[in-house]
Design a protein that fits this description.
The protein folds into two domains: 72 residues, Orthogonal Bundle (Arc Repressor Mutant, subunit A); 171 residues, Beta-Lactamase. Helix content is 46%, strand content 19%. It is built from ten helices and eight strands. α2 packs across α3, α5 runs antiparallel to α10 and α6 crosses α8. The longest helix is centred in the middle third of the chain and has 21 residues.
């Protein structure tokens, strides 16, 4: 019975996570195909989630969308809201100083999720979408976060991780990744040179909260023709911005 209950909860979470900025509504049949579940199972899940206010059903189309209870839950996550408030002004300053795209990402397992973005004013720029995911091992923000999470968490992520080669420059060895993360810890910032996409370069630094935990990373990204090689000044500006945001979140460095 316990196993069945956990499976039901897992499937309910999968249903909720199927909704996104690009998939705002789902019908029973389409969602069942998407999740690989039976229509009757999906219908029961949708009905239960609707009863609890997590979803609502359009009475004309019969399709489902996120309900108000989801937004009530989102409002109860202070870290994310605090991050948004703390980072917006420094992000703007960083974008204006560098003239490049600035983004903020958080770690979700072995992936980073981009939660904030300000576009470069240049015609040739990065087109990035909030909510987009990338493998942490080949992203500047991902490596910045991996380098500064607790070692126990890092080793748990590295265990059995098959590092996908996105380009010929991508790190594909766990030992090589460990070595780079150690270098990132020493210098305070991470670089991504053509590792997730040829021609794209970024530099990132960790953002810490009041408990000193690295909860996000901020990066400057752009075409290699403008950013490669990454210079010391750009690295310093990025780290200073990350430190500024961290202070706004309550972080106080020792010493």
């Amino acid at each position: 019975m316990s196993s069945s209950t956990l499976t039901s909860v897992s499937n309910a979470v999968r249903v909720l996570k199927a909704f996104s900025s690009t998939d705002r509504e789902w019908g029973v049949s389409d969602l069942a195909r998407r999740l690989g579940l039976g229509k009757s199972t999906v219908h029961r899940l949708l009905t239960t989630l609707t009863t609890e206010g997590m979803l609502e059903q359009d009475q004309e189309s019969g399709r489902y969308r996120l309900g108000l209870a989801v937004f009530d839950l989102a409002a109860a996550v202070p870290t994310q809201l605090d991050l948004h408030e703390a980072v917006l002004s420094p992000m703007t300053d960083l974008r204006n100083q560098t003239g490049e795209t600035v983004q903020v990402a958080v770690l979700d397992g072995r992936e980073v999720v981009y939660v904030e973005r300000l576009d470069s004013p240049h015609t040739l720029r990065m087109f990035l979408e909030i909510g987009r995911r990338n493998s942490a091992h080949c992203a500047g923000t991902g490596k910045a976060l991996l380098a500064f999470i607790p070692r126990v968490e890092l080793e748990r992520l590295l265990a059995g991780w098959e590092l996908e080669a996105r380009t010929e420059h991508t790190i594909t060895s766990v030992e090589q990744l460990r070595a780079e993360l150690e270098q990132i810890r020493r210098r305070g910032y991470a670089e991504n040179k053509h590792e997730s996409e040829v021609g794209v370069v970024s530099i990132a630094a960790p953002i810490r909260d009041g408990t000193a935990r690295a909860i996000a990373a901020i990066s400057v990204a752009g075409p290699a023709e403008r950013l490669d090689p990454i210079n010391v000044e750009l690295a310093q500006i990025t780290m200073q911005t990350a430190a500024h945001v961290s202070r706004r979140l309550g972080y106080r460095a020792l010493g």
